[in-house]
């Protein structure tokens, strides 16, 4: 995964390689680790670029995540209410 801002690479993750790891975890456990690593890394890069907390504290808002085209994603994660992330 590579994160771009105005076509400039600002971060990324090789977390997807975890899926190929041969360890005692099943594929679902490794996939959860990958998703968590990518989302955490994305948040870190966005915070660094914006120079402020992210996601912003807004009531009633959801964090939407997908892979691929926004209108026809290959993978779409369930929406996460921001109220669950901000404590």
Could you explain the architecture of this structure?
This protein has 87 residues and is an alpha+beta fold. The protein has helices spanning 27-50, 82-85; strands spanning 2-5, 8-12, 62-63, 66-68, 73-76, 80-81. The strands form 3 sheets. The chain has a two-stranded antiparallel sheet with strand order 1-2. The protein has a two-stranded antiparallel ribbon with strand order 3-6. The protein has a two-stranded antiparallel ribbon with strand order 4-5. The longest helix has 24 residues, at 27-50. 0% of the residues are buried.
What would you say about this model in short?
This protein is an alpha+beta fold and 87 residues long.
Instruction: Output the radius of gyration.
Output: 14 Å
Approximate shape = globular
Largest sheet: 2 strands, antiparallel
The overall strand count is 6
DSSP helix fraction: 25-40%
Instruction: Report how far apart the termini are.
Output: 28 Å
User: Can you tell me the residue ranges where pLDDT is under 50 for at least 5 consecutive residues?
Assistant: none
Structural class: alpha+beta
Topology:
Blueprint: E1 2-5, E2 8-12, H1 27-50, E3 62-63, E4 66-68, E5 73-76, E6 80-81, H2 82-85
Keywords:
87 residues, alpha+beta, two-stranded antiparallel sheet, 32% helix, 23% strand
